[in-house]
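Rotation project, supervised by the postdoc (A.L.). Task for the rotation student: set up a whole-complex structure prediction and record inputs and outputs verbatim in this book. Inputs entered:
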Amino acid sequence: MRVAYNEQMTELADMLGVMAGLAGTAMEKATQSLLQADLALAEEVIGEHDQITDLSVACEERAFALLALQAPVAGDLRSIVSGIQIVADIDRMGALALHVAKAARRRHPNHVLPEEVNGYFAEMGRLAVALGAAAKEVLETRDPERAAKLREEDEAMDDLHKHLFTVLMDREWKHGVAAAVDVTLLGRYYERFADHAVEVGRRVIFLVTGKMPSEPEDTGEIN
Amino acid sequence: MRVAYNEQMTELADMLGVMAGLAGTAMEKATQSLLQADLALAEEVIGEHDQITDLSVACEERAFALLALQAPVAGDLRSIVSGIQIVADIDRMGALALHVAKAARRRHPNHVLPEEVNGYFAEMGRLAVALGAAAKEVLETRDPERAAKLREEDEAMDDLHKHLFTVLMDREWKHGVAAAVDVTLLGRYYERFADHAVEVGRRVIFLVTGKMPSEPEDTGEIN
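Outputs recorded:
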């Protein structure tokens, strides 16, 4: 009984890691589809999204079964309940990658982004993928010190996001309102993706230590 | 023991209802501060936000204590775990209302919105507040039929949000890129607020029936 239980706990943890990996891969491909106006790649992200949703349902079911059948206490209880919360964050990361891919598909064969901001999105994409990979690593290692670093790494995303808005707000912006609207929403998607990765880290700290780090600001505010 | 347990279950449910009420009130005031460029009201929303965050922490702690001490099964287990998930949705609704208030404060004494789109935001605000109130009602009554209706009510929000983008994308838009960026983000905040209210409804259906309605699309996509 105990062996089966431990196996199921490990499986739940593994499934969360796999989900985080899928969300990171989705964001990586979505960014490339955005930068290259690559329709096939955008379609791939869109087609693969169900994998994340399906895993999300499977993780919740597994967590409920563990709670219902095993009546876990202390650390195990924290692991399972935090797992359910983490599912929601990773699910959202997948949805945000999907939004990026859909934006690329919507404007195809045109590029969504004016060339002027390509560099910003290449870098925001790189950071988002790195944060996704860090969230996956933290889910696998449960290292609270590594988890705490995600917040620092998110600062680079926030800085880029703020810079992007100064570009948009500049009187020299020559690409019209429609492009500005696309850039605004896309910037927000990347920034929120990173926030959810940080939130995964915060929850891992809680499940390991029993103490919840203070809630971060929604760092996507523009000034 | 059982009496104390039932009391604590009821208290958790009550706290969620109170939280939803606070998020709805915050969005109501935030919308008025936005439409009237009312700085005092914006400050009020910003100052009161901690109440929502504090309740969010208190709800999570209460839920954990119930899980740890009582080892609930079946319906009670679903109630508590769903409660934890619902906390995250309402917490987010509060954060989105906060964003609206901060936008009003940031541009004060100017109005954030060009007069042309005031009507859209007045109506989106009305719908958001109604959805918040419906979420509160559903948390209190646990009526799955009422909960299912939230999704229909959200359709009006989606329609408005789409219309808003046609106004933005119109060649006749005369208010510049900076205003367009503000309108884009604000529109997204209202639309996401409504999505989270729908999600609360979906989780109430699950906690009552044990069956999860299918996940809605993120309905904020523009075409």
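Student's summary: Chain B has one domain: 2-209.
Supervisor addendum: The interface with chain A takes residues 53, 57, 60, 63-64, 67-68, 71, 73-74, 77-78, 81, 84-85, 88, 95, 98-99, 102, 106, 165, 168-169, 173, 176-178, 180-181, 184-185, 188, 212, 215, 218, 221-223 of chain B (CB under 8 Å).
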